[in-house]
Amino acid sequence: MFKKIFITGTDTDIGKTFVTLGLSLLTQNLGIKTGVIKPFQSGAIDENLNVLNEVDINFIKKYSNGINTKTTYLLKAPTAPSLAACLDNVKIDLDFAKKDIETFSKLNDITFIEGSGGICVPIDDKHLISDFIKMLDIPTIIVARSDLGTINHTILSFEYAKRMNLNVLGVIINKFPNKTNDLSIIHLEKELKKHLNT
Fold it and tell me: How many other C-beta atoms are found inside a 10 Å radius of the C-beta of residue 193?
């Protein structure tokens, strides 16, 4: 069993937090002590109270029971971490973020690390989410939305991850529309299997 798994995506707002919650509930229900950490939480401003808010982690807390949670950097603007940190006058230290994950993961049997946006989102002037995954040297799961362009976005993200020598455990297609027919799902699965060789 992997001790740490990074959850990334093909884009932003595709349900990485929802997928992270589902995976963490699954492992927790199997009796595995589970933790979830979000190293870079942008868009962390509460519109009503004007205070920092662990948005995605709070979602995990709301629907789980006893899962360990943590956030490393809370950034106000709902943008890429690089810009949000700049606007907040915060310098993101990737070594610190890595150490925070390593320390936190010691509390758990398995830890899910939720990324920000897609796999190529910038964290600072020199590093993307993919660079951080490589720095952590852990496997990743790519989350994609079920929408027009899914095959293209998923193959591009997967091929890029391969080029970065990342260990992709698999792809989770999220947010199927209510009236999606079986033929569409079969076609999507067939095309992705053909191109991703999984």
Answer: 11
The residue among 120, 108, 162, 109 whose CA lies nearest residue 139 is: 162
Per-residue model confidence as pLDDT tens digits over 34-52: 999 999 999 887 666 566 6
Q: Which of 3, 16, 33, 38 is catalytic?
A: 38
Separation CA 79–CA 192 (nearest Å) = 29
**CA quadruple 53, 57, 62, 68: dihedral sign:** negative
Q: What are phi and psi of 67, to 5 degrees?
A: -80, 130
**What CA–CA distance (Å, rounded) separates 172 from 150?**
11
Q: Which residue matches tokens 């020199």?
A: 126
pTM to 2 decimals?
0.90
Give me the residue label for tokens 């982690």.
57
Q: Is 16 a catalytic residue?
A: no
> Which residues make Cβ contacts (< 8 Å) with residue 31, sequence separation at least 6?
none
Quick: pLDDT tens for 106-124: 999 999 999 999 999 999 9
d(CA 173, CA 130): 19
> What integer best gives the mean pLDDT of the chain?
88
Q: Sign of the CA dihedral 126, 69, 175, 165?
A: positive
